[in-house]
Amino acid sequence: MAARRFQLPGVQELGKQQEDALMLDRDGQHLIIGGPGTGKSVVALLRARRLQRDGDDYVFLVYNRLLLLASRQLFGEALRSDTWIGWFRRTFQRMTGNPTPCRGQPWDIDWPAVERLLLDFTPHSHQNLPHLIIDEGQDMPPAFYRSLVALGFENFYVVADQNQQIEPERHSSRQDIQEALAIAPERVVELRTNYRNRYPIARLAREFYTGDPASPPPALPPVPSGGVDTPILFDYRRDQYRATLGRILTLARNQPHKLIGVIAPTDQVRLDYVAGLRAGDAAAGGMVAVRTYASRADVTGLRFDEGGIMVINAQSCKGLEFDTVFLADIHGHRPGGLDTDLIRKRFYVMTARARDRLILLRARSGDSPVLGILPRDPALLARFPRPPVREL
Questions:
Q1: Contacts of 122 (CB under 8 A, 6+ apart)
Q2: pLDDT tens across 349-365, in order?
């Protein structure tokens, strides 16, 4: 497949706020706040590179295995990294001698039981524990941070945005993290510049911002002097489904060095799109790599430095970016039932994954609470086929 530009920027390419975040004291507790596209993960990886080149011990912890893979490929060296749950379970057992309490499944940690066990734990006075760099820190519960402190960890570098929480049962606010790690205000840096999204995408993403001032949205990028590719909502008929998949494949063939993300609302929709895209590509000669990932699946063969199509679930898109994003069958999104804030946060995350182009797809007969949060202004979201004037 065609190579895609996918590498960390040099320190000289950073903005002033990113420089400030990177150059915080080597030791201590730090929190980096920023909306989508502000480069939080980039700064966290550059922090890891700085520690690695200085010979310091560290662990880079991420939300899920797909983000772990993307981080390792972007880092370009041997990143000392892990998923946060897997790393915590092993670390807790190694340091306390007790298996990590879980509620049935290994990823469902019983945090009250963990904290009860740690009440009687005394850290070794001369232990040499690594620096912890934590990406997507809003998606770890406060008990995770409190437990790390109880285990004796002292050096934290957390990047987070509480407006990008998409797991309602497990998250931390900015205040939760600051209180759990005793982070002083002068060790909190806010990133405000959007380095990822083109103007029309950033403008649409802002429509889904819930208004939480603890993590403000990034400033809009400059308005381009020429024309813009306004995000599109395409309502397809059921008999247009294959043709819709064909348009995705055509775009991939025409831009082989670009990575297209297809973000699905459910696992069944993901599987349907993967099957349909692969069948359509095979019928046309098999020119496009159609890859996929589901939670806790094998990541072997997934590449972020090559063009093609990657089909993933909404829960797996955190921290990622694609050149073009298709939000598949948006009528299938029902996070938290009718909880409007959760729906907005999910779309705030998903829309901001796109760098250059964004297309929303909906089966014309698919009703959903999602439709109520979509902007009606065609300058923000163009609709095809165009609805009657009274609906705009």
A1: none
A2: 999 999 999 999 999 87
Could you tell me the pTM of the whole model? 0.94
Question: Which CATH code, of 3.30.1050.10, 3.40.50.300, 3.40.50.720, 3.20.20.80, is assigned to 199-391?
Answer: 3.40.50.300
The CA distance from 328 to 326, in Å, is 6
Q: Angle, to 10 degrees, between the axis of helix 267-283 and the axis of helix 241-254?
A: 70
Per DSSP, the residues of 110-140 read: -HHHHHHHHTT----TT--PPEEEESSGGGS
Assigned fold of 11-191:
Rossmann fold (3.40.50)
List of residues 6+ apart from 17 with CB closer than 8 A: 38, 189, 190, 191, 192, 193
Question: Using one digit for the tens of pLDDT, what is the confidence trace for 24-68?
Answer: 999 999 999 999 999 999 999 999 999 999 999 999 999 999 999
> ∠41-61-158 over CA atoms, to 5°?
55
